[in-house]
Amino acid sequence: MFPVDEMNRAEGDVAVQSDPMVAGRVTEDEATALNNLRRSANNVIMELGQAEVRKARLLGQLGAIEGQAQQQMQEIAKRLGIPEGRPWQVTPDGSARYVGEQPPT
Question: What pTM was computed for the model?
């Protein structure tokens, strides 16, 4: 009986003789290592796909939060009588302050 490496070489020799496109055979260890690397790469690809789905969900949540903040700002502006289109901001002390060079008219 041949050890695995000798058997692979013997089979490789026959394969090379019958098919000029075959250079030889990889060892079982090499094949196992390549299959493990391929499996690891596929796992990383699956994780990236899951991360993309999570990213899309998070972006959706962020859009909803930004929409709520915009709605709240519009309600505050209306309550305070801030004209539509007039830039303003809320300061850390809670004041609604106009932004820009000119005071309100």
Answer: 0.59
Higher pLDDT, 48 or 100: 48
Which phi-psi region, left, alpha or beta, contains residue 24 (left: φ > 0; alpha: ψ -120 to 50)?
left
If residue 81 lies in a helix (H) or strand (E), which one and from where to where?
none
89, 97 contact by CB (below 8 A): yes
Answer whether 71's CB lies under 8 Å from 58's CB: no
Distance CA 32, CA 28 (A): 6
Q: Which residues, at least 6 apart from 37, have a Cβ–Cβ distance to it below 8 Å?
A: none
Ranges of H-type helices in the chain: 4-18, 28-80
Q: pLDDT digit string (tens) for 66-89?
A: 999 999 999 999 999 999 999 999
